[in-house]
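Now read these lines:
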Amino acid sequence: QVQLVESGGGLVQAGGSLRLSCVASGRTFSGYDMAWFRRTPGKEREFVARKSWSGGSTYYADSVKGRFTIIRDNAKNTVYLEMNSLKPEDTAVYYCNERGGSWSWGQGTQVTVSS
């Protein structure tokens, strides 16, 4: 069974940057498109970014396009989310998963952006 562990969140001022990491154990990333999602209280988990298993295709939610970058290192079974020009509305718990969200969810990592 795959286990996902997210890290790298924290408190940052608006305009700042963070780099999130997600490491998988129990299953290789290879062959899977990997994605980042986020959830704020009272809302459904929403898609943030996705990268194909080969790294050739990348997709972003309109709200983060141009500010966030998803990176994957298949050799390390790790996917990253580089977040720049952060806004208060980016405040959420961030999760990674395969693109359909079918793996067991990790605990996520809290990102808080102050204005």
User: Anything to note?
Assistant: DSSP finds no helices and ten strands in the chain. The mean pLDDT is 95. Residues 60 and 66 are 9 Å apart (CA to CA). The first strand starts at residue 3 and ends at 7.
